[in-house]
Structure formats: structure tokens, C-alpha cells
Amino acid sequence: MVEIEVRPGGIFVGGHPIPEAVPPSSLHDLLGPPDRKVDPAPPAPAGHRNNLIHVYDDLGIYFHEHHWTRLAMDLVLVYWPEEEGYAFTPRRPFSGHLTLLGYLVPAEASESQFVRECPIPFEEYLSGRWRSAGEWSSIGMDSKGAKLRSGRRGARRRVVSIDLTWPHDPWLRA
């Protein structure tokens, strides 16, 4: 089981601090090899490359490898894969534990529960899309309501994914 924690000092994966964007091999050492690597469509122009996505189907995790720096920029934990809807979405929900400043995120947290109980303040910038405010500007949360028979979505939203982003400015690394 993967233990991920956000606390002063940054993001910790399996107890190992990861303070900034790292080579994908660093995450492979902690999580094992990915189940698949996805190069999203459309293809990049000649001489360029897309961000590569490293997917861990059994863990419910993926991360983006930046096309230029080739560093892992983020770690996305998918709680409700059926609703995330990308071709690279892991096949299973996140199977580990995520702790945000001491708050253990429940496996099937509602949006209201998450925003109310998490000690990190979040602001909604689009319907169902939240980002942390202040010093925690590197955390995002997406939520959706369940699909109803009518095709509309229910009003009670559930956490779909949480995105932990490391400081990463490719222009500063040039």
C-alpha cells in the first residue's frame, strides 16, 4: 500500500521526501515500474515530444513527465476512475492512503466533506474544480456528481481525483 503525505517540507511518498520535480526513475524506485506509459494524441510535431504519462493501474496513480525537462511534474491520485474519463486513467481507484496535514482523505469522500474537513484551504475556481489557496497552491481536487438516469448529474459531488504538483519551472532549469 502506498502512503502519500503532504506536510511542511513537501510531499512524501512512502516516507521519502520529494520537494520538487524529480526524474521519473525516482518515482519508479518508490512505486515500482508503471503498468503503462501513455503518449497522448495528437502526436507532437517533428523534433518535439508530448508530456509522457506514467500510469499505475493497480495503485490508482499516474504522473506526467514534462516533455522538455523530462521530470515528473505531479502525482495524480484517482479515487473514482469511472468518472475521470481519460484514456490514461488508471483502471482501479487509488488504493493507498493520502494524508494532507494530518487529514486522511477517505476513499469515497464527498466534495463537501473534503472541503470542510481538510485543514488546507481550497477555493472552487470552476464547478467541481478546486485548488488549494496560499502556500498549498500545488494541490488540486476534481469532483463530480453521480450520473442520473436522466443523463444529468446529481448535486452531491464526490472526489474524483487529487493532483499534487511539485515546483517545476522548465524555464528556470534551462
In total, the number of domains comes to 1
Reported for the largest beta sheet, the result is: 8 strands, antiparallel
Number of helices: 3
Helix content: 10-25%
Instruction: Give the termini distance in whole angstroms.
Output: 37 Å
Rg over C-alpha atoms, rounded to the nearest angstrom: 16 Å
Task: Please report the total strand number as a whole number.
Answer: 13
Indicate the proportion of strand residues: 35-45%
Short account of what is shown:
The protein has helices at 24-31, 81-84, 111-117; strands at residues 3-7, 10-13, 16-18, 36-38, 52-56, 61-65, 74-78, 97-100, 103-104, 122-126, 129-132, 139-147, 153-165. With 174 residues, it is mainly beta. The radius of gyration is 16 Å and the shape is globular.
Explain what the structure shows.
- This protein has 174 residues and is mainly beta.
- It has one domain (3-165).
- The protein contains 3 helices and 13 strands.
- It has helices spanning 24-31, 81-84, 111-117, and strands spanning 3-7, 10-13, 16-18, 36-38, 52-56, 61-65, 74-78, 97-100, 103-104, 122-126, 129-132, 139-147, 153-165.
- The strands form 2 sheets. The protein has an 8-stranded antiparallel beta sheet with strand order 4-5-6-7-13-12-11-10. The chain has a 5-stranded mixed beta sheet with strand order 3-2-1-8-9, with no helix packed on it.
